[in-house]
Amino acid sequence: MMTAAVILKNKSLSVTIPRKIILEIFIKESRALSHASIENSISTIIDRATIYRTLQTFLESGIIHQIPTTNNVVLYALCQEECSIDHHHDEHVHFVCTACDTTICMEKIIVPKVKLPRGFKMKNAALIIKGTCDICKN
Predict the structure, then answer these.
(1) pLDDT per position as a tens digit, 52-92
(2) Beta-sheet strands, E only, within 11-135
(3) How many whole angstroms separate alpha carbon 133 and alpha carbon 130?
(4) Hey, what CATH topology would domain 4-131 get?
């Protein structure tokens, strides 16, 4: 995995302390994160508005993607390296553990193609699988 500074430079973004700190959290975690969980991880180092703006910049730059949830909490996860400003390649399965409430990107499992009726145009697709993760399997 690349360092935060390298990822930011590859996306032509300024390497600022808040961006590095927030991106390092995503790199360290192997799960999806909410704004609140990021805020709790860095306590008072970075204010809420800066976190929000940084997440928006990361979304627009193809560094992270949003994950749909059923409880209206927005989750974010690192994108694949191929994602860009113009196109996210994040149409993979998201697994939600019903025991620990962790959401994990399963990037190797692609959402199957769906043939829509005439006149319908797909913008993106999401598939969420619920069950127990390998840690909570018992």
Answers:
(1) 999 999 998 889 988 877 777 889 988 876 665 555 556 77
(2) 33-34, 64-67, 75-78, 92-97, 103-110, 127-131
(3) 9
(4) Arc Repressor Mutant, subunit A (1.10.10)
